[in-house]
């Protein structure tokens, strides 16, 4: 009987050790991805991580300009203003309001820049965090496209049909070796 109890006790201890080891291994694999020495070396090199790079632009607002060097070219983008309307070109809103963002883009590179490249990667977020794609290019002006030569700038408007909320963020996704997003934050009170 003592031999049977020793065997049971041994199996019980072995199962505890195996369970503990397998939990430890899982924990180690999760920890190693967040504490990877190579990633901490990259951080030590002064290269910002994606979250650190994003945090540099957390406080963008109306009137703020950002100078970018991306895979589509080098340019500056400024959110010069925004307004809300119930109708655009005679069409009533389907979501609650039209948010019309006013932008200025300047080519700071050495090559021509297609205006549609930066604006095609813009979207609007509201308090519910739903992303809305630009519904149309506003107004009587020509479609906002074409090339900007080095040093040239262009101003235009992007219209979003979105829910009426208190806060909005205009997001610009861009690639400069890794994908990043800039956000201009503004409230309904700041709009006309």
From TrEMBL:
- Compositional bias segments (type: Low complexity): 24-37
PROSITE patterns named in the record:
PROKAR_LIPOPROTEIN
Claim: Lipid metabolism is one of the keywords in the record:
no
Q: What is the lineage of its organism?
A: Bacteria, Bacillati, Bacillota, Bacilli, Bacillales
Q: From the UniProt entry, list the residue stretches annotated as the region Disordered.
A: 24-67
Asked if the Swiss-Prot or TrEMBL record annotates the protein with the keyword Signal, the reply is yes
What organism is listed for this UniProt entry?
Halobacillus salinarum
Q: Where is the DUF4352 domain?
A: 70-172
- Name the record gives this protein: DUF4352 domain-containing protein
């Amino acid at each position: 009987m003592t031999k049977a109890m020793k065997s049971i006790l041994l199996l019980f201890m072995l199962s505890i050790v195996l369970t503990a080891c397998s939990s430890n291994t899982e924990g180690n694999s999760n920890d190693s991805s967040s504490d990877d020495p190579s990633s901490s070396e990259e951080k030590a090199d002064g290269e910002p991580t994606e979250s650190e790079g994003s945090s540099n632009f957390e406080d963008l607002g109306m009137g703020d300009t950002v100078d970018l060097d991306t895979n589509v070219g080098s340019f500056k983008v400024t959110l010069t203003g925004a307004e809300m309307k119930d109708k655009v070109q005679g069409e009533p809103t389907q979501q609650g309001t039209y948010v019309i963002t006013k932008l200025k883009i300047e080519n700071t590179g050495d090559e021509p820049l297609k205006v549609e490249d930066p604006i095609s990667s813009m979207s609007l977020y509201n308090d519910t965090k739903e992303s809305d794609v630009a519904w149309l290019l506003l107004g009587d002006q020509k479609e906002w496209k074409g090339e900007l030569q080095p040093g040239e700038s262009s101003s235009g408007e992007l219209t979003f049909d979105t829910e009426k909320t208190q806060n909005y963020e205009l997001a610009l996704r861009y690639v400069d070796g890794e994908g990043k997003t800039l956000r201009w934050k503004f409230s309904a009170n700041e709009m006309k």
